[in-house]
Amino acid sequence: MALLYISALAVFTAVFAIKEGRKAYNSGALYIMDFWNWVELIIILQALAGVATFFYSEAVLEDVASKMKNGENSGLFGRFVNYRRAAVWDQVYTYVIATLLCSVTLKMTHLLRFNHRASLLIHTLKRSVGPLSGFSAMFFLYFFAFAILLHLTFGLRMLSYSSFARTFEAMVTIIAGDINYDEISSTTGNLGTFILFLFVFVFNICLIGFFVAIIDESYHSAKDDEQLEKTDYDLKGFFKYQLQKLKPKKKARKNDNDNSSSISGPGYDEFKVNVMKRLSTVFEDLDER
Predict the structure, then answer these.
(1) Which of 34, 119, 121, 284 suits a disulfide with 232, CB 3.0-4.6 Å?
(2) What are the CB-based long-range contacts (under 8 Å, 24+) for 220-224?
(3) How far apart are CA 129 and CA 136, in angstroms?
């Protein structure tokens, strides 16, 4: 079943690559100026890498299985089969597919611009980039400062704070709401309780409140923007517009066929001669004047 899915992905990627190649050929240098065209190219390369990695990992697995059947890896203590190489390539395949899904998700956010609410979300994020960058710097500054404080205070007495990696993990769980208050109070006493209260107050109340305020302000600013309703279209309106663009072409073709059929009648030559005579008389009158 996996082979069927990968084969379908390979066919779709090939067709999509041909389409993008034609688009790049027609657009010329303007093609590389668009960010989303680069996203399309990255998706194509990641899909091709995923297909190639899948077939190579399957070939490695078949090679290891054939060696096991032939008994090539048998030793003093019996038969030993090393699946490390196959496991490594299977992990690489997982990573490639994961990056492909990330790129496809990014493309989906671009396609959701036709939806008014999704477009409002995108405009909100764009407006909040500047304030959130400053907030992120302040957040990580406080986070690392508290990590050093908690590691120095609790590191010698509690296993969950014995290293910086474990301290970071414990701090994230506290921010998420999982607070081991009994262990901290019984181990470190009033000092640990005060530090824990200070950490929860700074992160769960102050910094999270700042984050929500930034998002809320950006949301209302994007919602009040009148240009948002003028520039963004919903998906239904987009398809309706594209269908309306196709209708005049069909009518024009039909009119051309009707005109050609009517013009090719027996009286067309006589009509043409009369028109030319009238035009010649008009030009003669103009010359006399």
Answers:
(1) 119
(2) 221/127, 222/120, 222/123, 222/124, 222/126, 222/127, 223/120
(3) 10
Residue bearing tokens 């611009």: 113
Specify whether the CB–CB gap between 142 and 202 falls below 8 A. yes
- Token look-up 């986070």 returns 143
Give the span between the Cα atoms of 96 and 47, in whole angstroms.
8
Q: Are residues 39 and 103 in contact, defined by beta-carbon separation less than 8 angstroms?
A: yes
Q: Report the range of poorest mean pLDDT among 52-61, 126-135, 153-162, 257-266.
A: 257-266
Q: Hey, what amino acid is at 227?
A: Q
Rounded Cα gap, residues 61 and 67, in angstroms: 10
Instruction: Give, as one character, the DSSP assignment of residue 23.
Output: H
b/e burial code for range 196-228 (CB count within 10 A of at least 16 → b): beebeeebeeebeeebeebbeebbeebeeeeee
Residues 6 or more apart whose CB falls under 8 angstroms from that of 83 comprise 64
User: With the C-alpha atoms ordered 203, 205, 207, 211, is the resulting torsion angle positive or negative?
Assistant: positive
Q: Which two tokens stand for residue 138?
A: 């302040």
Residues 9-32: tens digit of each pLDDT: 889 999 989 998 898 888 888 888
Instruction: Give the helix/strand (H/E) hosting 82.
Output: none
